[in-house]
Specification:
alpha+beta; three-stranded antiparallel beta sheet; two-stranded antiparallel ribbon; elongated; metal-binding; zinc; zinc-finger; repeat; Znf_C2H2_type
């Protein structure tokens, strides 16, 4: 009986099988069941490909749990557990790196929104439509009505509506728009608003190179803030968003304004800033996933507003003081 190719876990037979002495499957099986498997138990000694994969997956996850516990204990022995200490961990050597990767689709790939249709409701609608009383054969009394006009033009096949593909696939995150699509939507909203409202000056993309960052690149850019000389030299530091302050009151005001839980339920998973509305969080997330490089002086900035102010410097625009009317560049 032990030679029968039956999966010891799910009892299936019509699948690719592996004997449990291969790939340490027997050891993983004993870990999960907490039972010692004797050699002569006369039970099937095979695992199907699906169960073998799950055994290996759970074993790796168990290792990850132990590694995470060990690294946290080491950090605790040397000091406090902070975001800075966590970001300095070599995740690859400690086997804490996620096996999942970010998929960035090409702009040429079309995305289709598929909606499930309740077939029972459709059938019900069809039945209701056929309840009217009419003569089924009255429209076909004349054979001339059955003639087919072959000169009718065929309708052109229409493409399915295309919507921009999200940058990152993650069930926890909101989809981040492409920068150009975001600007299009922003302009269309501005056009619909009152014409007398003062318009914000946009960024001239002919003078800038916009970089779209992947999840890993955005995370590296954010963690690099912890190593910035200005942050390291600051007297008071915010360990959540890596901003430095010269006074304690400024740090307390920043924490109350940006990281206080009462602000809202929507939190940025990079800098831990909180927002009241989801749309405000989406707008904030753009600064983590886009980088602006000035083509005239090679300045690199993460925020569009900073880029707009820098562009005014190149254009020679003068700012006037509202108190003394003195002008500054």
């Amino acid at each position: 009986m032990s030679n029968l190719k039956i999966c010891r876990i799910c009892l299936r037979t019509e699948a690719k099988m592996y004997k449990y002495d291969r790939f340490q499957l027997k050891i993983y099986y004993e870990e999960i069941t907490a039972l010692k498997v004797p050699e002569n138990d006369d039970l099937p000694q095979y695992m199907c490909y699906e169960c073998a994969t799950m055994l290996h997956k759970f074993h790796k996850f168990k290792e990850k749990c132990y590694n995470g516990q060990r690294v946290l204990k080491e950090i605790q022995w040397t000091g406090n557990i902070t975001y800075e200490a966590i970001y300095k961990i070599d995740r690859q050597n400690t086997n804490l790196e996620s096996p999942l990767s970010v998929v960035t689709l090409s702009d040429k790939v079309k995305g289709y929104n598929i909606k499930e249709v309740d077939l029972s409701s459709v059938k019900h609608e069809i039945k209701e439509r056929h309840t009217d009383d009419f003569d089924l054969y009255s429209d076909y009394s004349n054979d001339k009505d059955l003639l087919i006009n072959e000169n009718v033009e065929k309708s052109k096949e229409r493409d399915a509506p295309y919507s921009p593909v999200a940058m990152v696939v993650d069930e926890k995150r909101e989809s981040i728009l492409k920068y150009e699509e975001y600007k299009k939507r922003k302009r269309s909203r501005d056009d619909d608003d009152e014409p007398n409202r003062k318009m914000k000056k946009g960024l001239d993309l002919s003078n800038w190179k916009v970089y779209s960052l992947t999840e890993e690149q955005a995370l590296e850019e954010f963690r690099a803030r912890a190593e910035h000389p200005k942050y390291l030299a600051a007297r008071y530091k915010c360990s959540e968003c890596f901003k430095g302050f010269s006074k304690k009151e400024m740090l307390e005001r920043h924490t109350k304004k940006r990281h206080f839980e009462g602000i809202g339920d929507y939190e940025c998973w990079f800098c831990r800033m909180r927002y009241k509305w989801k749309c405000m969080l989406r707008k904030h997330m753009l600064q983590h996933y886009y980088k602006f490089e000035c083509l005239r002086c090679d300045l690199v900035c993460m925020q569009e507003n900073t880029a707009v102010l820098h562009e005014e410097f190149h254009s020679g625009e003068m700012k006037q003081c509202i108190h003394c009317e003195q002008k500054f560049k």
